[in-house]
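Example record

The entry below shows one chain as it appears in the dataset: sequence first, then structure tokens.
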Amino acid sequence: MKAAEHSRNGRYGRFRLWRAAHQKLKANNGGYVFAVVSEGQVLKLKRMSARDVERRLNGISWYSSGHDGKGHQAKIPWPHLVDSR
């Protein structure tokens, strides 16, 4: 389960994905449930396989999180994965 704020400082909130966890999900045919929230309320839900996440994004650009031991991450604005309508 991944959650992102609908908006934050005037911008879309983002889902943070971790490469190691994503690779495990993909290897085991797993996936995500993405939730877009605002003021504690769920506005949108979307279930998607790890493979479909990669397809929807045309691949994932991973980068160092800057936190020791946390590995690589990707921060994805929620409309890239969940319909904004």
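Notes for this example: The chain has a mean pLDDT of 94. The longest strand covers residues 41-49.
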